[in-house]
Amino acid sequence: MGPETLAQVLRPLQGLFSARDYPNMLVGLEVSDDAAVYKITDEVAVIQTLDFFTPVVDDAYAYGAIAAANAMSDIYAMGGQVALALNICGFPPDLPLEIISEILRGGAEKVREAGGVLAGGHTIDDNEPKYGLAVMGLVHPRRILTKGGARPGDLLAITKPLGTGIITTAAKGDAADPAHVAGAIASMQKLNRQAVQWIQQAEVHACTDITGFGLLGHGYEMAEKSGVRLHFRIDRLSFLEGSIR
After folding, report:
1. What is the distance between the alpha carbons of residues 89 and 53, in angstroms, rounded to a whole number?
2. Are 203 and 145 in contact (CB under 8 A)?
3. CATH fold of the domain at 3-236
4. Most buried residue among 41, 64, 164, 168 by CB atoms closer than 10 A?
């Protein structure tokens, strides 16, 4: 669902959970970010998110790992670390059990790599496979990062090369080089865990993860919420091999 459509369907919820009535809700519906943040104590805030999607690759294990990494990326985008995850699953009744097992194994091992714990989940029958995670992360309330904190003069840093969407779309039409697909799969499985550790040691004002809306879509969100303009130098952007010509 695109951002304009999403804003429209969420309009009836406006005002139901105002910051005045829920002061511990540090990031919620009123600010619309990568994840929700709820303050527990002066030292601990919980980051909560969920994400799932249909297969983007043919390999079941890689699909599970990619979906898990994508869901956990929202935790990192808010400046936190992963603590707990639950599976969200929708599988066709006739999908072989060994494929389902590989999807779940891919997700579980990625959660373990993130330093978190997988503790169950929920499954339903669905015509098309869908998999992802509901994820809880932790962050200090004064170290939360949002889309809306960018300032004039800030430098934009990207932690992964761009182009996974182009390559996976080409792969669906059998128009991608297998080596390029392998590079995209490796990139999509890579966690931003180390990146957020570096971010917390630097003076970073804003952060987001680049997923379905691409660099321009997510860049626009940051610019609009921060009241700034973003300037991109194409020659300084990193792209996966095979994503541009």
Report:
1. 10
2. no
3. 60s Ribosomal Protein L30; Chain: A; (3.30.1330)
4. 64
